[in-house]
Amino acid sequence: MCRLAAYCGAPCALESVVSLPPHSLIEQSQAATEAKLSVNGDGFGFAWYADRPEPGLYREVMPAWTDGNLLSLSRTIHSRLFLAHVRASTFGQVSRTNCHPFTHGRWSFMHNGQISHFAAVKRPLEALLPDHLYALRHGNTDSELLFLLLLHLGLEENPLLATQALIRTITNVGSKNGGYRTTCVMSDGNSLYAWRLSSDHRSPSLYVKQTQSAEEGNNTIVASEPIDAETHRWEPVKENTFIALTAGNLQKTALLPPAGHTEPLQNTA
Q: What is the CA 188 to chain-centroid distance, rounded?
């Protein structure tokens, strides 16, 4: 499984999440503690928002801990919102096109998990994409396909409804071939969204830490594992939870309603 982290708040250097903390994302690429694999060396990437609506993007196939460019860039790039990812491949070769995050327009997206027996459901899922989105598929991972399906299902209009529609789609197409495990983080440059859901209640881990100060306001980090020693300040994101961070306000919503409940649940935060 991969490891990921995202930040939203006062502008800061990417190294404050990527490389400086004792259990930074680079440290997790070599020694993850809450994943099936401790090493995530099949490439890395980060997307950051600056003075344009579209994010900047840097991806590389090298292990994160071996790339001096990553350390240099993470020291000098400052951003109010960024996503970072280190990859352990479950499907698809090690290539730049398969590294996360994936971007389109103002959106960025990264994923930790997998669709079971993806080879069996890949074609029917791809067939659901309209031509203009299928043309954007440059890699061969389930992660990139999930992102394109979200765009098709209305991500621009309503991220929660689009995610719910995606889960229904995966369930319907893959019902004869197994399940899924998904922990995803995505952003439009203004808000940060994340969710955990799996068919076997074993989604990859995800935590949230929020800090407040009079000078900087609310700062939020979402990460696969706590990146510092203040573990008591990191809140685990529960299974079947969709979180939305807008203007410093964090909202939590049940992604799928309980059995027998036909209407989407309202905000539970």
A: 13
Length of the chain: 269
Would you state the structure tokens that stand for residue 83, as one six-digit string? 């996503």
Domain 3-254 top-level CATH class? alpha beta
Residues in Cβ contact with 138 at an 8 Å cutoff, skipping those fewer than 6 apart = 97, 144
String of b and e for 143-169 (b: at least 16 CB within 10 Å)? bbbbbbbbbbbbbeeebbebbbbbbeb
- Please state the pTM of the whole predicted model: 0.92
As a whole number of angstroms, the distance between CA 187 and CA 82 comes to 9
Q: In a structure prediction context, what are the per-residue pLDDT tens digits for the chain, which is 269 residues long?
A: 799 999 999 999 999 999 999 999 999 999 888 877 788 778 999 999 999 999 999 999 989 999 989 999 999 999 999 999 999 876 657 789 999 999 999 999 999 999 988 989 999 999 999 999 999 999 999 999 999 999 999 999 999 999 999 999 999 987 666 789 999 999 999 999 999 999 999 999 999 999 986 666 789 999 999 999 998 999 999 999 999 999 889 999 999 876 544 333 333 33
